[in-house]
Each structure stands twice: as C-alpha cells, then as structure tokens.
Amino acid sequence: MDVEKQYDLFVIGGGSGGLACAKQAAKLGAKVALADFVKPSPLGTKWGLGGTCVNVGCIPKKLMHFAATLGELRHDQVEAGWVDTQVDSKHNWEKMVENVNNHIRKLNFGYKNQLMRGDVKYYNKLAELIDANTIKLTDNKGQIETVTAKNILIAVGGRPSYPDNIPNIQKLVITSDDLFWLQENPGKTLVVGASYVALECGGFLHGIGNEVAIMVRSILLRGFDQEIAEKIGLYMEEKGIRFIRGCVPDMIEATEDNKRKVTWIINGQKYEEIFDTVLVATGRVSDTQKLNLEKVGVNMNKNGKILCSADDKTSVPNIFAIGDCVEGRPELTPTAIKCGQLLANRLFNKATELMSYEFVATTVFTPLEYGCIGYSEEDAIKKFGEDKITVYHSIFKPLEWNYFEMHSGESCFAKLIVLNDNRRVIGFHYLGPHAGEVTQGYAVAMKMGVTKEQFDSTVGIHPTCSEELVQVTAVKGIDEAQKEGC
Ligand code: FAD
Ligand code: NA7
What we know:
- Strand 8 (189-192), helix 8 and strand 9 form a beta-alpha-beta unit.
- Strands 1, 2, 3, 4, 5, 6 and 16 form a seven-stranded mixed β-sheet that branches.
- The protein starts with 5 loop residues before the first strand and ends in a 30-residue tail after the last helix.
- The chain is built from 14 helices and 21 strands.
- It folds into three domains: 7-160 and 285-348, FAD/NAD(P)-binding domain (3-Layer(bba) Sandwich); 169-282, FAD/NAD(P)-binding domain, CATH 3.50.50; 362-471, FAD/NAD-linked reductase, C-terminal dimerisation domain (Enolase-like, domain 1, 2-Layer Sandwich).
- The mean pLDDT is 96.
- By secondary structure, the protein is of the alpha/beta class.
C-alpha cells in the first residue's frame, strides 16, 4: 500500500458532521482524508461539497423562507408609510434561485478551500468499505482507487424517501433535493407529508405567491408539541394554504401537458385534482445502503440507520458514525457538527467529553416560526406524569403587528413546562417572529438547569416578543392564555 494513502482518519461524507470532524482532526495533527460524492436525485439534480444543510437543506430553505417573509411584510410596509410598495407585486423565482444557488456555490468553494488549507486530503469520490481499514473510492468516470485508514468515520447523512404505493413516483414528483435548484417556479404545488420539511417548504412556496395544498396523513409535526403544531396549521390555513387531511396520494399521473393528476380517497370518496408540481416530503432514509457495512460488521437497524454507543463507536471498534445516518440522533446540523468536533478531540487529543443531546434548541421555519427546547407537553406528561408538571402559557401579539390589522392577534404563543418538585423548566416553546433568534439564548439557561423562578426574576427587554417568556404566569387548565397589552 502506498504510504501516501494511509490515513489516521478517513471520513466518508462531506456534510455538516464529516467536515467538522475532518477539520478538527487535521488541526490536532492527524493525517486525514475525506470523500464526498453527491449521487444525483432521480430527476438529475446535483450539487457540491457541504452536504444536505448547505445544498438542499437549512441554507436554501432559510433564504427562501426569508424571501417569503419579505413578501408578507408588503402590507406592513404600506401601513407603515412606505409609499411605493405594491402589495400585489409579483415574485421572480428565477432571480431568487439564481442568488440562492450562487451563494451555495460560494459555500461549496469555501469548504474545498478550508479542507485544503486545513491539510485534509479531499476525494470527490464515492466511498465504499472493503474491510474495517480499507476504503474503495470510485470517481464519476468509474476510476477506482483504494486507501487505508486506522479509523473510519461514516457521516453519509440521509436522502428523501418516497411513498412506495405509486408506480414510477421518483420521476413524477420532486423532493427537497430538487426544489432549491429548480430553474422554474414550481407553480401550483401539492406537498405530501406534514413534518417540518413539508410545512416549511409549503409555507415559503405560498409566501412567494404560489397556490399550495398540503396532504397530511395523520398529524402535523410528529414529535413536536401538538398544541403548537395545530396553531401553526391554523395560521397557515388562515394565510390561504389548504390542508387535505387524513389521506395519502392514491395515484399520481402525468397529464399530456406535463402536469400531475393526483387522486386520493377520504372516507371512501375519491378526489382528483391537477397540480403543476407534487413535492414529496415524507421523511428521509439514511444513505448507508451501498457502503458494504453489513459485510464489514457494522450493525444497523431495519431502516439502515447505524447503531452507535454514546462515544459514536459502531459495532466495529475503529469505525465511527455521526449525524443523520445514526439511530436516535436529532437530524440537525449543529448537533452533527458538535458531535464531529468532540469525536476528533477524543480520537486525537485524549479528550473524554461526549456529545450531549439534552436541551438542544431548534426552530421550525414555518410562516409563523416555532422555536423549542426540551420536552413537548405530551412527552413531559408521558415521562413525568400530568400531576408532576405545571404548564404556563401566553398568547401575545407582537407590537409591530399593529400597523396591519389583518395580522391575527391570536397566533403568537409562549409555553413553559415546569417540573413541580424542583421548578426546573424542562420545556420551552415559542411561536412567533424570529423564533431562532429568540430561542437560542434561552437554550443556555435551559442547559444550566434554569428554574421558573429564575425566568420570573429576569427582567424582559421591552417591547419585544422574547419578553413574553420571562413574564408568563397563566397556568394552563386554570388561567386563560390571553395576555393584556402593556
Ligand atoms: P449530510 O449533511 O447529509 O452529509 C452527508 C454527505 O455524505 C453528503 O454530501 C452525501 O452526498 C455524502 N455521501 C453519502 N454517501 C457517500 C459515499 N458513499 N461516499 C462519499 N460521500 C457520500 N438542520 C438544521 O439544523 N436546521 C435547519 O433549518 C434544517 N433544515 C433542513 C431542511 C431540509 C429541507 C433538510 C432536508 C434538512 C434540514 N436540516 C436542518 C437537517 C440537516 O441538513 C442535517 O441534519 C445535516 O445536514 C446532517 O449532516 P450529516 O453530516 O449527518 O449529513
Ligand atoms: P419526518 O419528520 O420523518 O416526517 C415525515 C412526514 O411524512 C410525516 O408527516 C409523515 O406522516 C409523512 N409521511 C410518511 N410517509 C408517508 C406516506 N407514505 N404518505 C404520506 N405521508 C407520509 O420527515 P421530514 O422529511 O419532514 O424530516 C426529516 C428530517 O429531515 C427532519 O428531522 C429534519 O431534520 C430534516 P405521519 O406523521 O407518519 O403520519
């Protein structure tokens, strides 16, 4: 074996987790290589280095959500005195996509540079394990080479999954892997699925002026606080997004003019409708199928997610796995990054710190944003019992919403879930503008074990939405959530 190709660490997957681990390991003096290869979507969409978040996830999603938010503020602008704003001005999809895609390309370039500067050897090749120390790399022309490594990290993330009841579905629908790179506006869109990817994408498509329907099999935002999930649905409905509840597509067909005819059945009655585009957001599968993991002895669950211990070790001692491809981990960029950095520290700097997934903050970028930390009300009741917790709640209206009276004063909501015995706040929920910015700081306090009394003794910043969280006193089940203005 060529000595040049023997590494201390070989990382498979140049997404959030893989890049972070590779860079940190190289910084600590390890000899590191990373392979990243993007298999095009079934419709042929492909992208560069950086993984899901950068190319087909958080980054384009947030930029498009922002574009939609700008449109929604046109009414407020007029009422706040801006004279040339047109409330019915049209959105230019091509312009938005061009700018978003250009930004992503800059990030792709930046990541390549970081690897080079950080002394990480980058292979734009598809990796597969031959044994616990040998990796086969194939480039897009089919050229093969092998390398060896003392340690291997699998950070291959996931890809969208498709419902399995529709013939030829992969050619008839788009997924989030295509949406952010579409060169034409998708037009009237049916979104299938009801979790956060579905609601976020449906939300911004409607916000930029498209007709949108969302097909919901059961509940909105499984795993999130259901009281808030329903409030998000209500707000989206009030804005004009149609929810088709309690069904899945029964058939999707291409029409002669290349639109999509969708049929579905509710309570025995058949419905059909023509859409320009069907966006499927029905979950993701981990991208582990072709890595040869079983043969090498890496254990997975039945969905192909890798089983790992708390120190990110798989069933093969020198093979590690992090991020979306691991069972039981939150599918979030910052957790994958932190996990990768900590792993590098443990491997190459004698560190012992493990990744903690407790009180990780996250935000759903629906038209009304939702930030949360810790337990949902349902999970808190399940874990501790209804009589062991107190839920505080408050409905509020952002001051800025008073320019434009069409804003519903009932929409924004704050909820704290508190353990009765030690008064620790174990659930934080905020539904309102700028949820990501509002929620992040509270995550520090939650990690430190903040109590409700410490929330109460904190002086708010006035006038803000965030101050609602340090002023909430109404107890759910006893007091109405409605709050008087100051
Ligand atoms: P990924 O980032 O998916 O990277 C895996 C990489 O491995 C990919 O580049 C892939 O091409 C490559 N690869 C796979 N197999 C091979 C192979 N055999 N050889 C070589 N390379 C391979 N998270 C947030 O925190 N905030 C958000 O707002 C957010 N929004 C999202 C919106 C959408 C639409 C989606 C889909 C996800 C979103 N996420 C968000 C989740 C976030 O993107 C993921 O949790 C994160 O990217 C996971 O990182 P990872 O390193 O595990 O994998
Ligand atoms: P999730 O969180 O796995 O949710 C999948 C959604 O799709 C959920 O609403 C499901 O409904 C629905 N679903 C699943 N299968 C079907 C079929 N066959 N037909 C209709 N609807 C279906 O997936 P996301 O893509 O939103 O997000 C995955 C991760 O990616 C997420 O954690 C982010 O970090 C990024 P159900 O509730 O099961 O009835």
